[in-house]
Amino acid sequence: MSQQPVALITGAGRRFGFALAKSLLAEGYRVFAHYNSSRDGVAELEELGAVGVQADLTSHDAITALIAAVQAQTQRIDLLVNNASCFFNNQTVDSDPTALAAVFEVHVQAPYLLINGFRPQLKQADNAVVINITDIYTDSPSTDYIAYCAAKAGLANLTLSFAKALAPEVRVNGIQPGPILFLPEHDSEHRQKVLAETPLNLEGGLEPMLQAVRFLRDNPFVTGEFIKVDGGRALMI
Question: Which UniProt keywords apply (predicted)?
C-alpha cells in the first residue's frame, strides 16, 4: 500500500476548503477535492494534482456514490475534513422546505455518512484524523440562524460521538471558526460591527485555520476537542 498520505476535503472549491487543499498538495498529500456545483477552484486544484469528486451532499445516494468512487481509488484516508456548508437564515428556511432540509443534510447527515462510510480507509491509515468544521455559534446560537446553529450543534455532538466510537485508531476533532473571511456581500458597516465585537479586532484570514488543522492532525494525544479560531469573538456573543 502506498505510503503517500491521503486527504478528502468537502467543499474544496473555495475559501478555506480550497486553501487547505492547496496546502496539503504542497505537503505531498494525495487530495480528493469534493465539490457540488462550482468547479472553478477544483479545476485549479486538479491542475496541481488533486482528484476532483462531485456530489450533492443533500442526497444520500450521491454521498454513497462518492464514497464508492473514492474507495475505488485508495485504500487509506489519513485526513477527512468535513468543511462543506450551507448558510441560511430563518426567513430562507421558513419559506423553503428544501433549504431547511439541506441545512441538516449537509451539516449532519453528510458527515455522518462520510465518517461511517470511510471507517475502513481511516483505520488503514496511521494516525488518521477527522476534522469537522463547526461554528462558534454551536455554543451560543444566533436567533437569526436557528436551523443552521442547531445543525452545527448536531455536527459538534457527532464529533464527540465518533471520537469515542473510533478510538483508538482514529481521532476526531472540530474547529469553530469566527470572522475568518468576510463574504463579498458583507458591506463595510457589517464588517466594522463584527470586528468591534471581536476582541482581537481583525479579520483572521485563512492561515490561522490552516494552523489549527495542522495542530489537530499532528498532535497524537488530542481527540474529541474543539479549537475556536475566532479572535475571541465567542467571548462576546
Answer: Oxidoreductase
Give yes or no for residue 174 having a pLDDT over 80.
yes
**Alpha helix (H) residue ranges in 48-145:** 60-71, 90-95, 97-104, 110-117, 119-124
**CB-CB contact of 32 with 69 (8 Å):** no
Beta bridge partners of 31: 7
Q: Is the peptide bond before 111 cis (omega within 30 degrees of 0)?
A: no
Instruction: Give the CA dihedral 139, 142, 143, 146, nearest 10 degrees.
Output: -70
As a whole number of angstroms, the distance between CA 174 and CA 177 comes to 10
Q: Estimate to the nearest angstrom the gap between the alpha carbon of 153 and the chain centroid.
A: 14
Q: Does residue 148 have an active-site annotation?
A: yes
**Which among 215, 229, 222 has a CA at the least distance from the CA of 171?**
222
Instruction: Specify the 3-state DSSP secondary structure of 168.
Output: coil
The answer to whether the CB of 7 falls within 8 A of the CB of 30 is yes
> What is the pTM assigned to this prediction?
0.96
Across the chain, what does the average pLDDT equal?
A: 95
State the fold for domain 6-231: Rossmann fold (3.40.50)
pLDDT of the residue at 1: 59
226: helix, strand or coil = strand
Q: Is the pLDDT of residue 194 over 90?
A: no
Q: Residue 183: pLDDT above 90?
A: no
Q: Which of 35, 137, 145, 148 is catalytic?
A: 148
Q: Which amino acid is at 126?
A: D
Q: Which residue has the higher pLDDT, 231 or 181?
A: 231
